[in-house]
Amino acid sequence: MRTPLIAGNWKMNNNMTESMELVDNLIQLTKNFNKNVEILICPPFTALFSIKNSINDSVIKLGAQNMHFEEKGAYTGEVSPMMLHDIGVEYVIIGHSERRQLFNETDDLINKKLKAALKYGIKPILCVGETLGQRESGIEKSIIKNQITNAFNDINDKDSAKVIIAYEPIWAIGTGKNATSNQANEMASFIRKTVSELYGELVSQNMIIQYGGSVKVNNANEILSQNDIDGALIGGASLKAEDFYKIINSAQ
Ligand code: 13P
Question: For tag attachment on the chain, is the N or C end more exposed, with fewer CB atoms within 10 Å?
């Protein structure tokens, strides 16, 4: 039985006042929430500590959007897994396509970050996804398979079971053009098959696989009802408490 995970990736949005207002609204909305759904928000680094203190008595979990793979050292401008763990961050997004594309993150770097998160007991959400050109050339599955195989390089069975995978086709991110529920489910089930080849049926059947890319109130229900999709990673629609809450309620 897989518990759906609905996660908000705030990206580089919200100042402190806006962050606290959004969190306060979410706390209110989820006060009596008792469905079997995990709720996660991933604010910018600057807001993590304050938000952690305000969500302590709520059902809302906290994640970071990125991290370095080293514990500490001369890495100006970076934030380490130890620092995230220290303030109670439970999840971290690894290898988001914006980081792969805009900050040149390679499969090797993503593999190092995945291992570092696992070492510190932070649950990694590994993002994978193809470009429009790759999909149009019919190579989307081999791209995803490569991204997964490289990310999991040298990670043992026990640790592999702690990873969450988010399928985020790059052409659907922030474009308002979501993958159809069939496309999303087909890729989620391909990801499950790939994981099964690497780690066996048990790990693959228990793995949480999210879809991300223009998930909105009006398409969440359809996407989240697919067999192999266990939640969503949401950008734009997670910045509005009411919309995010409606999407949370679409999860089953
Ligand atoms: P949008 O929901 O804004 O398309 O962003 C998706 C995303 O990148 C989540 O990580």
Answer: N
Nearby residues of 13 by Cβ (< 8 Å), 6 or more positions away: 44, 239
Pocket test for ligand 1, best of 170, 215, 224, 243 (most atoms within 8 A of CB): 215
Q: How far is the CA of 128 from the centre of ligand 1 (A)?
A: 12
Which of 29-33, 173-177, 181-185 is the least confident region? 173-177
pTM of the model: 0.97
Q: How many domains does the chain have?
A: 1
Q: The domain spanning residue 75 has which CATH number? A: 3.20.20.70
Contact 165, 209 (CB under 8 A): yes
Q: Is the CB of 8 under 6 A from ligand 1?
A: no
Confirm whether 168 is a catalytic residue.
yes
If we measure between CA atoms, which residue out of 174, 231, 165 comes closest to residue 199?
165
Round to whole Å and give the CA distance between 201 and 196: 5
Which one, of 195, 200, 205, lies nearest residue 1 by Cα? Answer: 205
Q: Give 67-94 pLDDT, tens digit per residue.
A: 999 999 999 999 999 999 999 999 999 9
143-158: average pLDDT: 98
Is residue 213 within 6 Å of ligand 1 at its C-beta? yes
pLDDT at 200 over 90: yes
DSSP states of 187-206: HHHHHHHHHHHHH-HHHHHH
- Which residues make Cβ contacts (< 8 Å) with residue 123, sequence separation at least 6? 63, 90, 91, 92, 117, 162, 163, 164
Q: Which domain holds residue 235?
A: 5-250
Bridge partners, residue 91, by sequence: 63, 123
